[in-house]
Write a structure and sequence with these properties.
With about 375 residues, the protein is an alpha/beta fold. It starts with a helix and ends in a 6-residue tail after the last strand. The longest helix is centred in the middle third of the chain and has 15 residues. Helix content is about 25%, strand content about 25%. The protein contains 11 helices and 16 strands.
Length: about 375
């Protein structure tokens, strides 16, 4: 009856009862470890209880060989907005908002959802020193289309792409001077830059080199900023400083062609005590790029538990949505994926996807 109703509605989601139980062989906990025997009670799209027995009379979705995971989160993507996230006339775009660029009908979003990606962040490009607000998006809403959950962190960049001959800044020195001037002038304004300067809004900054990392950490210390860094290449040189500053780091995307220097960064940072998220880089990468990146990181020294966190709870924390997404615990949204085995084993396949308690019809969502 439920399946027939989903077909009649023409949506991508299989509507489910207000209360049901998911039972699986294992469950990935908040520490990223796989626990045996998972039972999760879901009510009105939220996780009510983890463990215990199924209440009498409540429907049970059984996956006896499956591993239940939080929905995967791509912390740095251009899904639904590729090519629409850059304004090149001025390197200062604090008022830009990636939410305005989202195309909810972009087919690559549905492909990512089938691969277990239930949420993603759309980040402005690296072309601007201050790129504007990112957007945190759930891959499927009540109407079966993506749903913007929140405006995310402010995007900043020290990438060489910022420096152009026909506009300021034209050098890294000029970029840091401009950024300091912007932060000092922001004052108590309630726009995005003012909130960021006051420490009320987190930021994500692209820092290609070790020197860029140290400059960003200095800015964060000087202005008391909440700042996560995107960095791959020089992890060994700056891991200790990043750990001391308690700064989260986004690495990747990784594929099988990643250099040793890139692919070992996640493990180096983890061993130093840094919270690491792995980006997928959707939509230009394959739909299952998050799992591939996590598997590559493990092969190059990251622990499996940290790699599972790097594509679930850690990106949720860096995006400021960890009270809703990223882990399987009471009061969190029931955004869940059942894999046939460990998600880090690339032979495992996606068996089922739930978003806000709705089971996605993976066949009709193609």
């Amino acid at each position: 009856m439920l399946a027939a109703l989903a077909v009649l509605l023409g949506g991508s989601a299989l509507l489910c009862a207000d209360e049901f139980v998911i039972s699986a062989r294992g469950l990935i906990d908040a520490a990223g470890k796989i626990q045996d025997a998972a039972l999760v009670l879901v009510r009105d799209g939220k996780i009510v209880r983890v463990g215990g027995d199924a209440p009498k009379g409540v429907r049970v979705a059984k996956f006896p060989g499956g591993v239940l995971s939080p929905g995967l989160i791509d912390v740095r993507s251009a899904l639904g907005a590729f090519g629409q996230l850059s304004e090149r006339a001025d390197a200062r775009q604090p008022g830009a908002d990636a939410r305005a660029a989202l195309d909810r009908h972009q087919p690559r979003i549905a492909q990512a959802l089938r691969a277990g990606v239930t949420a993603f962040a759309v980040l402005p490009s690296d072309d601007n020193l201050v790129g504007g607000r990112s957007a945190v998006v759930r891959a499927s809403g009540a109407d079966g289309l993506p749903q913007v959950l929140a405006a995310g962190p402010l995007a900043l960049s020290l990438s060489p792409r910022v420096f152009m001959p026909d506009r300021e800044p034209v050098s890294r020195v000029g970029a840091l001077h401009m950024l300091r001037s912007l932060l000092r002038a922001a004052g108590d304004d309630e726009d995005a830059l003012g909130q960021f300067a006051a420490g009320k809004l987190p930021g994500i900054i692209t820092t290609p080199s070790a020197a860029d990392v140290l400059a960003a950490l200095s800015l964060a210390s000087e202005f008391k900023l909440k700042l996560a860094l995107i960095h791959n290449d020089d992890a060994r040189k700056v891991a200790a400083q990043l750990a001391e500053a308690h700064a989260g780091v986004i690495v990747g995307p990784y594929d099988f062609d990643a250099t040793v220097r890139e692919a070992t960064a996640a493990g180096v940072l983890e061993r130093a005590g840094v919270a690491v998220a792995i980006a997928g880089g959707l939509p230009t990468a394959a739909a299952d790029t998050l799992r591939i990146g996590a598997a590559v990181a493990v092969h190059n020294g990251m622990t499996p538990a940290a790699a599972r966190r790097a594509i679930t709870i850690t990106p949720a924390k860096l995006l400021g949505v960890d009270s809703l997404l990223g882990s399987i615990q009471p009061k969190h949204s029931a955004d869940l994926v059942v894999f046939s085995g460990d998600p880090l084993d690339l032979r495992s396949r996606v068996i089922a996807v739930f978003v806000a308690g709705r089971r996605i019809n993976l066949e009709s969502n193609r």
